């Protein structure tokens, strides 16, 4: 039996979850792996406040050096959250030859290059499975069992809060603000939900996941991002009538000479595997030249699922004599600012001759053809809701059409991409 000595940077929800899992499942884990995990130190702001966990006083410390500079500690687990000081502490641990395990998508996305380079320089391990999809082993899959593939597409529901909100809006016909308030009351959304509902959380994740899938660094600032705050119950209802389900998707595509990296609401056909993923569940759809289609689904957030992935990474770090380093191209592919998709365009249009001709004429002028069209609520002299779904078209061409429409006769209320 080999003992593995750990230091925990933080003892909040996730850190506390890891502490509980190591303590309660440690004997079973030792039997399965031959490794006895021991937490020597846990960094807290105040020794009197540590999440109500039963932690011996000698384990608790308020000094990061008790972890980062202790030669006995082999693996440092980071649970501080946010960019700093988390990134700096991880970098220092790696510099001191300690392997690092983290679920911190923000720090990893923004500082991946320097963390990876330091791990490569010192031979320490950098493990971050839990940063994308919680307990869903997508990053491990991309780096090991699927490594002999050209991955062409990753598309995922990677934020449980927004998936919960959109699921409730679809099921109840409720508006975004009403469901958000309920989700906050239930503790399913943060008091400040910006990172989730504006797509930032998902953007960090596609930055990490896409970099590994396409072996080309995707920086956060290059990810196109659009949240769900402008989605209405009307959009969801009209989409359902036309055979679609709305999800907030993180999308990455390898087009050969460029990469797409984007986060935004998107309609999916009702028979798409991601369309049935409801509530706070996460799921990631992959397509590779050899394995073809694959779907991974599970709990993408929460203390227990994340702790499970963290402990899995600890075991990997302890077992590996040589730690894997993600291979990335030296000449990264550019991230495209234009891409091809279908589009759902919802408008309020005058019920008058020539309106449809103007809309279809502008689309035709950009080489965009119409796949489906629906009109609702026509009233003499008033305005009707007009829905147009295009065939596959360039993003920038659709934007030009929207900008060119005369708002006096046709007001665009929302544009939502259609995937799948």
Description:
It is a single chain. With 420 residues, this protein is an alpha/beta fold. It folds into 3 domains: 2-127, Rossmann fold; 138-299, Dihydrodipicolinate Reductase, domain 2 (2-Layer Sandwich); 340-418, ACT domain (Alpha-Beta Plaits, 2-Layer Sandwich). It is built from 13 helices and 17 strands. It has helices at 13-33, 65-68, 86-95, 105-122, 138-143, 160-172, 176-185, 194-197, 200-214, 233-241, 303-319, 355-365, 395-404; strands spanning 2-9, 35-43, 60-61, 75-78, 99-102, 126-127, 151-157, 224-225, 244-254, 259-269, 281-288, 292-299, 340-350, 370-376, 383-390, 393-394, 410-418. The strands form 2 sheets. Strands 7, 8, 9, 10, 11, 12, 13, 14, 15, 16 and 17 form an 11-stranded mixed sheet that branches. It has a 6-stranded parallel sheet with strand order 3-2-1-4-5-6, sandwiched between helices. The protein starts with a strand and ends with a strand.
Brief summary of the model shown:
With 420 residues, this protein is an alpha/beta fold.
Strand content: 25-35%
CATH superfamily of the largest domain: Dihydrodipicolinate Reductase, domain 2
Q: How would you sum up the major sheet?
A: 11 strands, mixed
| Number of continuous helical runs | 13
The secondary-structure class comes to alpha/beta
Task: Count structural domains.
Answer: 3
- Compute the number of strand runs: 17
Average pLDDT metric: 94
Q: In sequence order, what are the helices and strands, one letter per element?
A: EHEEHEHEHEHEHHHHEHEEEEHEHEEEHE
């Amino acid at each position: 039996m080999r003992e593995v000595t750990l230091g925990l940077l933080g003892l909040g929800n996730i850190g506390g979850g890891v502490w509980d899992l190591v303590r309660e499942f440690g004997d079973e884990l030792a039997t399965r792996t031959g490794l006895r995990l021991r937490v020597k130190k846990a960094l807290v702001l105040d020794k009197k406040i540590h999440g109500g966990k039963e932690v011996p006083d000698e384990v608790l410390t308020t000094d990061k050096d008790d972890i980062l500079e202790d030669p006995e500690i082999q693996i440092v687990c980071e649970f501080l959250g946010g960019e700093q000081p988390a990134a700096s502490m991880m970098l220092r641990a790696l510099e001191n030859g300690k392997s690092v395990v983290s679920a911190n998508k923000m720090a990893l996305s923004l500082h991946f290059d320097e963390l990876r380079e330091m791990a490569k320089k010192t031979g320490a391990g950098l493990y971050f499975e839990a940063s994308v999809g919680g307990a869903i082993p997508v990053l491990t899959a991309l780096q090991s069992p699927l490594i002999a593939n050209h991955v062409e597409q990753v598309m995922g529901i990677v934020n449980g809060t927004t998936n919960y909100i959109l699921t409730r809006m679809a099921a109840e016909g409720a508006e975004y603000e009403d469901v958000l308030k309920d989700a906050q009351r239930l503790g399913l959304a943060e008091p400040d939900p910006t990172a989730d509902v504006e797509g930032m959380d998902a953007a960090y994740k596609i930055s990490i996941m896409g970099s590994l899938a396409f072996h080309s660094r995707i920086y956060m600032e290059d990810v196109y991002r659009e949240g769900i705050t402008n989605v209405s119950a009307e959009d969801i209802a009209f989409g359902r009538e036309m055979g679609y389900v709305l999800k907030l998707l993180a999308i990455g595509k390898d087009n050969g000479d460029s990469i797409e990296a984007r986060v935004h609401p998107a309609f999916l056909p009702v028979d798409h595997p991601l369309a049935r993923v409801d509530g706070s569940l996460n799921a990631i759809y992959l397509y590779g030249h050899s394995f073809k289609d694959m779907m991974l689904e599970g709990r993408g957030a929460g203390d227990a699922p994340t702790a499970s992935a963290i402990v899995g990474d600890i075991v990997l770090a302890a077992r590996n004599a040589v730690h894997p380093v993600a291979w990335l191209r030296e000449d990264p592919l550019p991230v495209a600012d234009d891409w091809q998709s279908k589009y759902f365009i919802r408008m309020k249009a005058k019920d008058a001759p020539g309106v449809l001709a103007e809309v279809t004429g502008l689309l035709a002028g950009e080489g965009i053809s119409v796949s489906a069209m629906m009109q609702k609520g026509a009233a003499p002299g008033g305005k009707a809701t007009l829905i147009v779904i295009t065939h596959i078209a360039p993003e920038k061409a659709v934007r030009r059409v929207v900008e060119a429409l005369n708002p006096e006769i046709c007001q665009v209320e929302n544009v939502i991409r259609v995937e799948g």
